[in-house]
Design brief:
Helix content is 43%, strand content 20%. The strands form four sheets. A five-stranded parallel β-sheet has the order 7-6-8-11-12, with helices on both faces. It has a three-stranded antiparallel β-sheet with strand order 1-4-5, with no helix packed on it. A two-stranded antiparallel sheet has the order 2-3. It has one domain: 3-Layer(aba) Sandwich (Rossmann fold). The longest helix has 37 residues. By secondary structure, it is of the alpha/beta class.
């Protein structure tokens, strides 16, 4: 009797599980549809103009001009802007470089790059106006993390591309960089970017890219992201790995930044500074604080300006910094550089 009941019990269990999955997926679909109504879709047209790069994962195209458009699904424009890159794949705002002037080199992601902004709205442009005695070089690119900054410096090419050997390097940090430094499921576009890890003695090592240096983990992360494409429930709960960042993850990001500072100060007669951007997603508040503590203990200058927010601080529908916020930050930076570093 038991042998005949077993297949029936298994079938009933599988049927029950299937019904539960259908119910959960259906309920999740309803909740997701409500969120979609509350947050209208976005249309993007050639947001970034990049090409693959064996060392950095991807990089800006050389000597390029293109127009980027972002709009709501109903056609309401969020922004239309034109970006330009120079022969060294840096964003240019039509500035002139003078060999006898010191430099300010910007590293970072779209916030430092100036996504959604015309030339005169960028942090780069504002710093050039407020510190006219400096050449401003923008080595940021949308979606990059601290690993691209370190790999770029380790390439040794910057002294050939920057006209002066003295000045400042400013790494513009935002919370999402912590995920990018470790290559979590939140950043699938970076799996071909530089992979740094800490060895058994806590020393920083580069091991190719996330794709080649940790193939099993990266394959698992890709599978999770693909599964979210088929599951309403996984999208609803926004499954991510790791769910939260550990102290070890923060330590890895710190070591990457420390390595970048070491490389910069080895190649240039300048000061490496970390700017914690005033615009926060507050994804990792405690981790950000811990990172700042480690940087300060290492003697790396950290700039963090608390500002009063207004609706003009984020591009509506996009969340990147506006020109108004960039100018306020540039003013604070220029005042600090003059007061504390003799700029």
């Amino acid at each position: 009797m038991m042998d005949r009941e077993l297949p029936a019990n298994v079938a009933l269990s599988l049927f029950t599980i299937a019904i539960c999955v259908v119910i959960v997926e259906g309920a999740s679909a309803v909740l997701l549809s409500r969120k979609a109504v509350e947050k209208p879709g976005i249309i993007e047209v050639q947001i970034y103009d990049t090409e693959p790069d064996d060392d950095l994962g991807y990089i800006l195209m050389r000597n390029n001009t293109y127009t980027s458009v972002k709009a709501y699904g109903n056609g309401t424009l969020i922004y239309r802007t034109t970006y330009r890159s120079d022969e060294h794949r840096r964003r240019t705002v039509n500035q002139t470089y003078y060999p006898d002037r010191p430099h300010i080199i910007l590293f970072g992601c779209s916030c430092a790059y100036g996504e959604g902004l015309d030339d005169n709205g960028t942090l780069q442009y504002a710093l050039g106006n407020l510190l006219p005695g400096y050449n401003i070089y923008n080595y940021a690119a949308a979606g990059w993390g601290p690993q691209q900054m370190l790999a770029l410096l380790e390439s040794g090419r910057l002294p050939e591309e920057v006209d002066s050997d003295g000045g400042f390097a400013i790494y513009v940090f935002v919370d999402p960089h912590l995920d990018r430094g470790i290559g979590s499921t939140r950043v699938p576009w970076l799996y071909n970017s530089p992979y740094y890890r800490l060895d058994g003695k806590g020393r920083l090592r580069r091991d190719g890219s996330f794709e080649t240096g940790r193939p099993v983990t990266t394959a698992a992360f890709r599978l999770i992201n693909e599964a979210k494409g088929y599951s309403n429930f996984l999208r609803l709960i926004n499954l991510e790995v790791p769910a939260n960042l550990s102290d070890e993850d923060v330590r890895l990001n710190f070591e990457i930044i420390r390595g970048a500072r070491r490389e910069y100060e080895r190649q240039f007669n300048g000061t490496f500074i970390v700017l914690i951007h005033s615009i926060h997603w507050d994804t990792y508040l405690e981790q950000r604080r811990r990172l700042a503590e480690l940087l300060k203990e290492e003697g790396i200058p950290v700039l963090h300006y608390q500002v009063e927010y207004s609706p003009e601080d984020r591009i509506q529908g996009d969340e990147h910094p506006t020109a108004e916020l960039n100018y306020r930050m540039a003013y604070n930076i220029s005042e600090t550089l003059r007061r504390d570093f003799g700029a």
